[in-house]
């Protein structure tokens, strides 16, 4: 990777930083304007199975709390499954919380996690691709993928592929199974660096984060289109939970300088979970799919994400990176 950045890359980093701040301000305004829309009615889903990545803290913990309150069996994918016992003790219906090891920086781990889930649960009704990381130095995973792209997008893309047969089995007429990608308004200044998707030539952590969140949104839309063409009873959504005071901001300049502002103006994790639970359960969404949801309503997304040619190109590259034929996406594998 070239560490001696030319002026055009320095200016690009500055633009991304400014645009990301603008996206954040826009997200805060959206949260304030639409605060009354943030409501969710939890059903009794006693016979249903949900899978979620992450969840040991922050928004994910509150999503799990909601899924358990809906009487679902919840399977967490988490790096340290031993943490789950204490978490379960603090939750209603905590006995319904299970965990298997999952490291999203390893495609091998993703496959092993999926294998364990499918062995016990051949039908799944909700998949929440929640876990994520933000910023940090340039680093490649063991599979040679930039870490933010790997954790936020590619491993979830692969996990969705592996679990789709079970999601298809779980879908019913009027009660489709649902895939929920937790994205961000941070996608707005982003684009996909198709010619250098790992950004090896000149890494910008802000642009890489924006790319990963944009990829989550685009894959949710494209996969939804594929499922619709196939006539499957599975629907896909992308959700921006709002600007939430979580550990993702640890180490950032904003956290160091304005911690008081985060407590005053940002959503709590519990409030951030509402839009995600809305995407999991809202009955009216059965008539719609492929949406970008913010504050329990359709949000404003960038033009790049809506371009079907861009979506397909990202889909094909993602399939190549995880080692599957695009025509076999969502088809049952011999795990």
From TrEMBL:
InterPro entries: NAD(P)-bd_dom_sf, SDR_fam. It comes from the Eukaryota. Keywords: Oxidoreductase. This is Uncharacterized protein. It comes from Chilo suppressalis. The lineage of its organism: Eukaryota, Metazoa, Ecdysozoa, Arthropoda, Hexapoda.
